[in-house]
Amino acid sequence: MKRIIINEWRLLYRNKTQFGIMCGFMIVVIVAIFLSHKQYNVQYDSFNSAKNELRAQWENIDAMNPHSAAHYGTYVFKPANLLTHLDEGVNSITGNVLRVEGHVQNEMVHSEASQMMFTSKFGKLKASLIFQYIIPLLLIFSAFASVYSEKQNDRLKLIVLQGISPNRIMFSKALAIWLYSNILLIITLLVYLIFSTSNLSSDLLLRLVLFFVSYSLYYFIIIGLTIFLSARINKTAIALTSMIGIWMLWTVFIPSMVLSSVEDWHPLPSRNAFKSAMSEDRSKGIDGHNPSDERGKALETKVLSEYGVDSLSQLPINFDGIRMQEDEEYGNLVWDKHFGNLNDILQDQKNTVQYFGIINPFTSLQNASIGLAGSDNLHHQMFLRQVEDYRRVFIKALNDEHAYGGSKTGDWGWKANNDFFKSVADFDYQPIMFKTVLKHYLLDICLLILWTGIVIVLIIFGTNKIAMT
Amino acid sequence: MITLQNISKSYKDQTAVDNLNLNVDSGEILGLLGANGAGKSTTINMILGLIKPDSGKITVHDIDVDKSPEYSRQFIGYIPENVNLYNYLTGIENLNYFCLLAGLKYSKPELQDILETCGLDKDSHHRKISTYSKGMRQKVGIAIAYAKKAKVLLLDEPASGLDPLASNELSVLLKQLASNGTSILMASHDIFRVREVCNRIGILKQGRLVKTLNSNDVSANELESLYLQYMKN
Q: Would the pLDDT of A402 be above 60?
């Protein structure tokens, strides 16, 4: 087996055309990573400078009414994951900046299934495009050529006569081309690591290892299946066409089918329907800006009795702040309810998409790729959750200052001082750890392993008695 | 030694080989003459164990091919019409690779000796196969069988497309191998070459062995007449 692998490599190296194509691909991948890295740096710098500037603006607020400050709000930035160089995923459409302000919560706007389509768009030179579409095509042609050249003019007979069984020849060929694809991957990832040395962490390395494993498994599936079909089918044109057909089915047709099926099976409400339902539920709560609101009146009675006074003017605190916070908390419950439902639907969509990996390993690869790159829906949802949690703490701090900072009810002109604004904590994004990602994408990795096993079985048992005459 | 006993093979309604009995002794060269579709290649593929006969028994070096095809192949060398080697490797690299596949390790001088024995001069050993003529490739193919110490050599149209000099060199080489005890079965259209190289000649027609004769018993012209006569009838 080792001899065949070494020979395949030697042939690859000496075949100037193939070697040239390999070098060309390497250059394109490296350029793609370099461009992504450059974009990341620009984005990182502009995010940092915008973040610092916004924080400085906030900390420099000399004196301002806390409620005005709540409407003034702030912005939070989703820190770009270093691995997004390799797979941009949904980041290109979700954006990375969110506004945080009173009364207004952020939305999740797209379905789990649709993330597959974002990554499959051609056009922009992206590392994921090369990893997921171009390299597999190159591997299909290499694997096909490798078997075809042996079958041509009886050379396979000559090899078999040396005492090697056909399945051993085919398996060795699959391994040889797979190792070649791994070299392409390793070089690419090494280049990536060189660009990213300053920001490396154990979490990132673990993601990178699993990222490599996912692609490596997928490449074996592609190579193995091509070897199997090329060995089994005598008519070369049919063998190649069949594999290209499977590749198209996996990369174009099934993802489109998944998209429409999953959205049919687990429909998300339209943005308008969702907003209407939210508004309807929200209207049942306190109107923080309307003193004559009925539920507001009930709260007023409760607070007055707590303080043992008869009117708002007698309160030592500012009731407006309490009412606005109550309004916020009701709004939070509404948000939790609706986004909880939305999360359940998204989770159902995610599970269904993942099960499509049984018939399409490309789906599993895409899921694992964006999941490990941190550019998937899951990371985006977790970012939104953190932003919402921060928004609640942020607005509560402002409402509490409005209520208990020293002003009286109706005193909208009262201003908190600079020390208060400085004391309000900034948003601190907690990155999603590898363990969480693994938990969500273990099924995809397992399906890729299952497919690899199936392909190994096909080669071992399906190419032992191939026609050589 | 090769023995074929009552071998028959059909594809759908077409008979490729019909009750064929053959015997090639050690050191003997048997030439099989026949038109296209006469069953020559099918016979060779059955001896190689790549096609299973419908009936009959084939033994190579006293090994039942049907029962132990892989084992029997260890003793067989095979030269197709076009010896398709690896174009990006040199002659010596090709030989070394095929030897390694067979589990044989030869030193570089030993490989060079084998190539020289098979008629390839030293200058050509380190040239890529893509620069070799068809005759030179045939010689590398024979060198592979020679290195393997094959007891049986099967050749399918080996002289087809060779220039007279290369064809003659091939004849000399085959005789040399036979003199060392190798049993050689050669399928060909080339009546004159078969007459010159082989000890015995068999004429195949529609899968049946219609005539066997010693090459010493007929001249080239007589053989041609006889062959044409069988083909016409």
A: yes
Contact between residue A307 and residue A315 where contact means Cβ atoms under 8 Å apart: yes
Domain that holds residue B134: 21-37+77-232
Number of C-beta neighbours around residue B44 at 10 A: 24
Tally of structural domains, chain B: 1
| Contact flag B88-A165 (C-beta cutoff 8 Å) | no
- Indicate if the pLDDT at residue B230 is higher than 70: yes
Confidence label for A291 from pLDDT (cuts 50, 70 and 90): low
Share of chain A above pLDDT 70, in %: 89
Task: Tell me what ipTM this predicted complex has.
Answer: 0.85
Is there a contact between B80 and A15 if contact means CB atoms under 8 Å apart?
Answer: no
CA–CA separation, A324 and B103 (whole Å): 85
CB contacts of B41 in chain A (<8 Å) are: 469
A2 contacts chain B (CB < 8 A): no
Tell me the one-letter amino acid at A13. Answer: Y
Instruction: Answer whether residue B171 is part of any domain.
Output: yes
Residue B2 pLDDT exceeds 70: yes
What CATH code is carried by the domain that includes residue B192? 3.40.50.300
Q: Name which of B98, B104, B181, B101 is nearest B142 in CA terms.
A: B98
pLDDT of residue A366: 92
| A10, A161, A164: residue with CB nearest B78 | A161
**Which residue stretches of chain B are H helix?**
40-47, 69-73, 91-101, 108-117, 122-125, 134-147, 164-179, 191-197, 220-232
How open is the CA angle A104-A109-A110, to the nearest 5 degrees?
A: 165
Name the residue among B73, B85, B88 with its Cβ closest to that of A161: B73
Per-residue model confidence as pLDDT tens digits over B36-82: 888 888 999 999 988 899 999 999 988 999 898 888 988 998 888 88
Choose the closest CB to B48 out of A155, A157, A159: A157
